[in-house]
Design goal:
The chain is α/β, with parallel strands linked by helices. Helix content is 32%, strand content 26%. The strands form five sheets. It has a six-stranded mixed β-sheet with strand order 6-7-8-3-9-10. Strands 16-19-20-13-21-22 form a six-stranded mixed β-sheet, sandwiched between helices. A hairpin with a 2-residue loop joins strand 9 and strand 10. The longest helix has 16 residues. The C terminus is likely disordered. The protein binds adenosine-5'-triphosphate (ATP) and magnesium ion. The site of adenosine-5'-triphosphate has 19 residues, from strand 2, helix 1 and helix 14.
Length: 510
């Protein structure tokens, strides 16, 4: 069946200084269809879509809607053409309710809230959204905030919807819910573009897949006629192996012994409750759990960033000596000569200084609100250059501000820097979130390389398929408690999934 073309982009080129983000791209977006937009980090996906959402204007090329040439000069004009984009970073006002946020900026404030709320409810029931129109944004989960953003776009009459990595912050269950809504919108005749790096999501939700590579249009294929391997090859431009090696380290030794670790947050809630486990040299210890099960607190407690209420964290030196880490600041831990590296979840907030280039960021580590710690003075530029090359960071140069890099490339800089510090313990939280598939595999092999050098790697992850391929053991957290520690080589996803959700009172620890 011939689909009706909603948007046609012809010969679109967009440059930022010396970077050509989009190079003469031709693209069609059809109504009644979900198109996945796929490409490596920095390949130009967000930029291309931002020219439809009115954030950027093309340097060259033309845009047509239903066959007529259009010019989109602002997000407001984009709405007038029925185009709405849900960005990666939400722009909601925390103290406003869902409805207040949805109608914000419309009709110059003369607004009938009751009527607006009724319309919001109507949109929600039509597509299967689940929101409380009167709920304040600060009380909402990430997924609820995202729902508000989508409803906001629909409220403004959008029938062409663009979602930029919407699932990066969602749990698998929330993702399925979002996909049901997207399918309903497609049935309703809307045109949908979804950007995601997760190939199983592409296979699951899309009708067609368009691939960009290094700013160029590579092609569009029907999802039914392709598979993850073929898509990866198309994205990267050559054959890529999607296998994770899991060699065994000959002589693992205990490196960190965590016992009865309990932390309490500002509201007095136990975020970790008597957590006990051991992390060994030459081992990747995976940490699985529904988001917010204590993963963040665990890594921050070990690094000295989160106050510990009870319990101990002992570091075993290469001579067998034990050092208690509880009560020590990150600085103190470093001064003791204990090499710990940490790739936090919040990259620009906690990991890197956005206004500085790669070189500057090699010198500094800014865990927690700018309280920077000097890392190393030796040859930051050589190190920056090495990471640039080894991890294929897309940037014009090592002095280019990292905040201008695409999301995935920011992460490469951070991971590269942390690994280069040759730590004894390497901790990563969602190390591959936002990374394209090829770079994700590069990170997996870097972590495995570290493990085979005898590093104790703690890998907090959300993709169970990856955890059971990569990790030697997997610690499953549920509500701040250890629900189980399983062997990565024999565990099944089902088994881990059950532990993640059903805490049974089985003794934790080993
Ligand atoms: N405002 C900007 N100023 C300078 N360069 C930019 C700007 N926005 C994007 N770029 C550059 O354009 C290129 C394409 O970036 P874009 O964000 O479109 O990539 P992407 O495909 O969305 O990547 P990711 O998967 O990592 O999100 C990158 O090299 C990026 O550094
Ligand atoms: Mg992007």
């Amino acid at each position: 069946m011939e689909k009706k073309c909603a948007i046609e982009m012809k010969g679109i080129t967009k440059r930022f200084g010396q970077v050509t983000a989009n190079d003469s791209i031709d693209l069609r977006i059809n109504r009644g269809e979900i198109m996945a937009l796929l490409g490596e980090n920095g390949s130009g996906k967000t930029t291309l879509m931002n020219m439809l959402s009115g954030i950027y204007q093309p340097d060259e090329g033309e845009i047509y809607e239903d066959g007529s040439r259009i010019y989109i000069r602002s997000p407001r004009e984009a709405y007038e053409y029925g185009i709405g984009m849900i960005h990666q970073h939400y722009k909601l006002i925390e103290v406003f309710t869902a409805t207040q946020n949805i109608i914000l900026g419309l009709n110059d404030g003369k607004m009938d809230i009751a009527a607006a709320e009724a319309r919001v409810k109507e949109i929600c029931s039509r597509y299967g959204f689940d929101i409380d129109p009167g709920k304040k944004v600060y009380d909402m989960s990430v997924s609820q905030k995202q729902t508000v953003e989508i409803v906001k776009v629909l409220y403004r009459g959008a029938d062409i919807l663009i979602l930029d990595e919407p699932t990066a912050v969602l749990t698998p269950q929330e993702t399925q819910k979002l996909f049901r809504v997207l399918r309903n919108m497609k049935e309703d005749g809307k045109a949908i573009v979804i950007i995601t790096h997760k190939l199983h999501e592409v296979m699951d939700v899309s009708d067609t897949v368009t691939v960009l590579r290094k700013g160029k249009y590579i092609g569009t294929v029907n999802t039914a006629d392709t598979d993850p391997q073929a898509l990866t090859d198309m994205m990267v431009g050559h054959a890529v192996s999607l296998n994770i090696e899991r060699p065994r380290y000959p002589d693992p030794q205990r490196k960190l012994i965590v016992e009865g670790l309990t932390v309490v947050d500002e509201e007095g809630i136990r975020r970790l409750d008597s957590v006990s486990f051991t992390a060994n040299t030459g081992e990747i210890l995976g940490v699985a759990g529904i988001s917010g099960s204590g993963q963040k607190e665990l890594l921050e407690a070990i690094t000295g960033l989160y106050p510990v209420k009870e319990g101990s964290i002992r570091f075993i030196g290469s001579d067998g000596s034990e050092t208690e880490l509880v009560g020590k600041t990150p600085k103190k831990i470093r001064e003791t000569g204990i090499g710990m590296a940490f790739v936090p979840e919040d990259r620009l907030g906690m990991g890197l200084v956005g206004s500085m280039g790669m070189t500057g960021n090699m010198l500094l580590r800014s865990w927690k609100n700018g309280k920077g710690a000097l890392l190393r003075k030796k040859d930051p530029e050589a190190l920056a250059n090495r990471i640039w090359k080894d991890l294929d960071v897309v940037t014009p140069g090592v002095d280019y501000p990292v905040r201008r890099l695409s999301g995935g490339n920011v992460q490469k800089v951070l991971v590269g820097r942390e690994i280069s510090s040759e730590p004894a313990v390497l901790m990563t939280a969602y190390a591959v979130r936002g990374l394209d598939i090829n770079t994700s595999y590069t990170i997996y092999s870097l972590l495995t390389e570290q493990k085979m050098k005898g590093v104790a790697v703690i890998y907090v992850g959300e993709d169970l398929d990856v955890l059971i391929e990569l990790a030697d053991r997997i610690l499953v957290l549920c509500g701040g408690r250890v629900a189980g520690i399983v062997d990565g080589r024999t565990a099944t996803k089902e088994e881990i999934g059950l532990l993640m959700t059903h805490f049974d009172s089985k003794e934790s620890g080993e």
